């Protein structure tokens, strides 16, 4: 996948979620920027995430992010890689140790544009996060990275209790529950 394929996917991406629809044009325009996949683009840049679920669609794998102090899906910066599926897989494997990851669909599962707070030497900026749906074996041992405080399979019924209000995670959870993409 390269920026042309991503742009085409974004231009054809349809969602019933208003907040997500509002992002599509911004994402498609960003594909034209030569620095879109690099942290050097200080206003904002692409990231990629893996929404990982077990095969029975009862649990999702979340990490308690060390820098942000919130439960999130696994993912990270593109760092120049225009293949965001590769980025999502690499980040998920690095952050979880999972080797059983299976991409359910190469189409975009979800998108979210969110602000990242200022830190020393890094100004406040946007992450244009492209998410893909993955399955993994819930019984495979997890290996937590230094980027996490905790890493756990969370039952769909407990996600809201764990994360509080995070509309993008709740949206992905709802999409998974309603998904036509089954086993």
Concise description?
Pfam families: NUDIX. With 183 residues, the protein is α+β, with helices and mostly antiparallel strands.
Question: What does this molecule look like?
Answer:
The structure is a single chain. With 183 residues, the chain is an alpha+beta fold. The chain has one domain: Nucleoside Triphosphate Pyrophosphohydrolase (Alpha-Beta Complex). The protein has 5 helices and 8 strands. The strands form 2 sheets. Strands 1, 4, 5, 6 and 7 form a 5-stranded mixed beta sheet that branches. A 3-stranded antiparallel beta sheet has the order 3-2-8. A hairpin with a 5-residue loop joins strand 2 (59-65) and strand 3.
Features:
single chain; 183 residues; alpha+beta; Nucleoside Triphosphate Pyrophosphohydrolase; five-stranded mixed beta sheet; three-stranded antiparallel beta sheet; 5 helices; 8 strands
Regarding quaternary structure, how should these chains be classified? single chain
Average pLDDT, to the nearest integer? 91
- The low-confidence parts are none
Question: In angstroms, what is the radius of gyration?
Answer: 15 Å
Total beta strands? 8
Shape estimate: globular
The fraction of residues in strands falls at 25-35%
Number of domains: 1
SSE topology string: HHEEEEHEEEEHH
Protein name: ADP-ribose pyrophosphatase YjhB (NUDIX family)
InterPro entries: NUDIX_hydrolase-like_dom_sf (IPR015797), NUDIX_hydrolase_dom (IPR000086)
Pfam families: NUDIX (PF00293)
Domain Nudix hydrolase: 43-176
């Amino acid at each position: 996948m390269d920026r042309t394929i991503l742009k085409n996917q974004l231009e054809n991406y349809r969602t019933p979620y208003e907040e997500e629809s509002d992002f599509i044009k911004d994402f498609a325009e960003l594909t034209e920027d030569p620095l879109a996949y690099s942290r050097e683009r200080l206003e904002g840049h692409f990231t990629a995430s893996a929404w990982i679920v077990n095969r029975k669609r009862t649990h999702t794998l979340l990490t308690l992010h060390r820098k942000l102090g919130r439960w999130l899906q696994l993912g990270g910066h593109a760092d120049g890689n225009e293949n965001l599926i590769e980025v999502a897989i690499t980040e998920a494997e690095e952050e979880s140790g999972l080797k059983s990851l299976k991409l359910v669909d190469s189409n975009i599962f979800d998108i979210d544009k969110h602000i990242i707070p200022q830190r020393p030497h890094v100004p406040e900026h946007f992450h244009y996060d492209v998410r893909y749906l993955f399955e993994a074996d819930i019984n495979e041992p997890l290996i937590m990275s230094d980027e996490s405080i905790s890493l756990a399979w969370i039952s769909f019924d407990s996600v809201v209790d764990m994360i509080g209000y995070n509309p993008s995670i709740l949206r992905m959870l709802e999409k998974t529950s309603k998904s036509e993409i089954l086993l």
